[in-house]
Amino acid sequence: MMKKKICIDARMLYYSGIGTYLRNILFHLQETPYEISLIIHPKDRDKLPWLKSFRLIYCSSKIYSLKEQASLPFKIPKCDLFWSPHINIPLLPIRAKKLLVTIHDIFHLAHFFNLSKAQKSYTSIIFKNLMKKADKIVTDSKFTRYEIHRFFPLHRDLIEVIPLGVDFDFFSNISSENLKSVKKEYQLPSKFFLFVGNLKENKNLPNLLKAFKQFVLSGDHDHSLLIVGKKAGFIRSQPLAKFIEKEDLRERVRLLGFVPENDLPSLYKLATAFVFPSLYEGFGLPVLEAMSAGTAVIASKAASIPEVAKDAALYIDPDDPVSILEAMKTISKNTSLQKDQIEKGILNAQSFSWKVTAKNHLQQMETLL
Predict the structure, then answer these.
(1) What is the CATH number of the domain that holds 112?
(2) Residue 118 pLDDT
(3) Is the pTM of this model over 0.85?
(4) Are 82 and 205 part of one and the same domain?
(5) Number of domains in the chain
(6) Does residue 16 sit in the same domain as residue 101?
(7) CA separation for the pair 177, 117 (Å, rounded)
(8) 13: helix, coil or strand?
(9) Mean of the pLDDT values across residues 50-66?
(10) Is residue 211 located within the same domain as residue 294?
(11) 136 and 237 housed in the same domain
């Protein structure tokens, strides 16, 4: 009997967010009764030894490009199922019998008014194409499922919520040597708040900086604010840097930019608290990473974040810098609360598993095969 064939678009294997999602799910799909092909960028072929468990198809087309739309349909082989882990599915017909698509969030639709004309056009075309062609949609949270229904009144059976996981062992097993190494490498201050993410608008960094400015003015001369995340390609990094300069926060706020994954656990662990003031998230994976590392979390009570953080975060109103300020004051002074939040966070993070996430994805694929 011929094996069922599955093809997966894995070109975003090393992107932040979606790359973490892909790597962890694919790792757990190495042994299945199906023939699985991965479409990957040629530069990624030797980065992970276990990629050899799959049939590899190479495609160097840039994500969101015209070249992608021209080449990707012809890279997808004749198969029983094609899974796209993001919304950028081909506009042209493909040779897959069924199509599974992951929608992590619909920020661009929810904030359509902020887009350029080109972005509005691309977003509209892509989502209309996706909704017309997808046989099943997977999303990370109940919040995003609700948002999809808000814009597209689809039959509820079409959308399946599968929460993401976290590599708890990776983020919790931190050696004292690694802590010392990271502290020295980044010349870390003795006390600091930490943000991890990109510099997109929904991350709400201007309000975080306003809150931290007031935190400094309130008399705290010990804490700094470290912002970890890719700066290249995000125009918001320039106004943030100007704000830091204007408000004379150069000695207290540092934009660290991209940080290697192996350094993240120690950065989380050394922080007084992880602050996540985001306005809009499809999931919010850094929350679980910080909790796994044993760090107290200050989080926005917005979008999907309460689904992820549950009762293990100190919640703030992301639209109100004073709310963020008060949370930073509270967590920095109340060591008993800090300890309680850390214990709750560890228990919460342990309830999220990539193995379970991968199993649930495979089950959804099987419903379409």
Answers:
(1) 3.40.50.2000
(2) 84
(3) yes
(4) no
(5) 2
(6) yes
(7) 51
(8) coil
(9) 94
(10) yes
(11) no
Tell me the two tokens of residue 270: 């050394």
Buried b (16+ CB within 10 A) or exposed e, 92-102: eebebebbbbb
264 φ/ψ sector (left φ>0, alpha ψ -120 to 50, else beta): alpha
Q: Are residues 159 and 211 in the same domain?
A: no
Q: Are residues 75 and 186 in the same domain?
A: no
Angle of CA points 85, 170, 41, to nearest 5°: 35
Domain membership of residue 290 as a residue range: 168-349
Q: Would you tell me the crossing angle of helices 321-333 and 205-217 to the nearest 10 degrees?
A: 50
Pairing of strands 35-40, 5-9: parallel
Q: Are residues 220 and 342 in the same domain?
A: yes
The amino acid that residue 86 corresponds to is H
- How many CB atoms are closer than 10 A to CB 252? 21
Answer yes or no: do 198 and 317 share one domain: yes
Residue type at 286? Answer: P
SS3 at position 231 = coil
pLDDT at 233: 45
Amino acid at 205: L
Q: Which ranges constitute the DSSP H helices of 230-284?
A: 237-246, 264-270
Closest CA to 79 of 99, 103, 51, 56: 99
Distances (CA, A) of 340 to 228, 297, 331, 343: 25, 11, 11, 5
Contact 325, 277 (CB under 8 A): no
**Mean pLDDT, range 155-166, rounded to an integer:** 90
